[in-house]
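[Solved] Which block belongs to which protein?

Original post:
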Amino acid sequence: MSIRQLFAAVFVLVPVLASAQTRQPHIKRTNPAGLSKPTGYTHVVEVSGPVKTIYVAGQVAADEAGNVIGVNDMKAQAEQVFKNLERALTAAGAKFSDVVKMNMYATDLSQVQAIRDARARYFGGDALPASTLVQVVRLARPEYMLEVEVIAAVREGVRAVPATR
């Protein structure tokens, strides 16, 4: 094999190998036997390989100007919270399918269905994060009914794709 043939082979194989590496799943979601069937989350989420970790602070039902959206309306607040999460994830080059952990804090769990409905519109299919939902007495402002924080993992070197619902 000549040096020219060797260089030609390298130029062909390197992009192919790089492409194959980026297609490997970097997030593995598992619901082990012996644990209850989860509703809207995954019991175990594993992240492997070279990834960028993104921590999104707790998002509340505030618009860009800081106005509370949906005072006393969990459905409207949940929708705004997930819109805010979408904006934050997109700004960091991530999407909802990259989220590996989600913590939700709500002031009234009797309205949990409104939270689940909003979450389902943004998280699709089997790409559900490990998740915790806690009822709290109060959030930072008395008008807030829900706060959600997430951690996402994005494979390094992958072009960012806008978040989808």
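(Second protein starts here: sequence line, then its structure tokens.)
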Amino acid sequence: MARKPGRTWTTTKEAKRNAPPPVKVARAREGADADAPTLHLIKLCVGVDDVQELADWQKKRRRQFKRRFNTHVTRSYPRRADELLAGGSLYWVIAGSVRVRQRIIGAIQRPDSDGVLCCELRLDPKLVETAPRAHRPFQGWRYLEARDAPPDLKPGRKARGDRLPPALVDELRSLGLL
């Protein structure tokens, strides 16, 4: 990759050492009000073909950075962060379907290496599979109301169509039948 003129390149350790303190820090509340309506985020999981691949990639990143949680950096800090941290999750769209979610445990607004503000979402490492629901591609993230979120699959239970050949599953999903 060619270096852009005027840009300073630093290593991850240098960036952490020289990084200014975060601007906003928000953490999930323990014992959030169970009756309160929950707000979620939905985001495309680009470059991942299935839930296991996402799980493996996140595990590798946790080990690499010696963390007990996952992070996802995005450009915009959610204005409704308090609602998200009251039990909200990040729903991942994988291969055209919402397939899995992760609980959001924190949101930190901080400058990136170029000084531009970004948001670091902190995610629970536990992936909860959901009933697959087709979703069209979009950029960035979107809010997802609790009533619109797909239900969780019971542990050990497979989604409809998981025993079918992948090509057939893709065709049935494109027709809206799965």
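Accepted answer:
You had them paired correctly. Confirming on the second one: The two ends are 41 Å apart (CA to CA).
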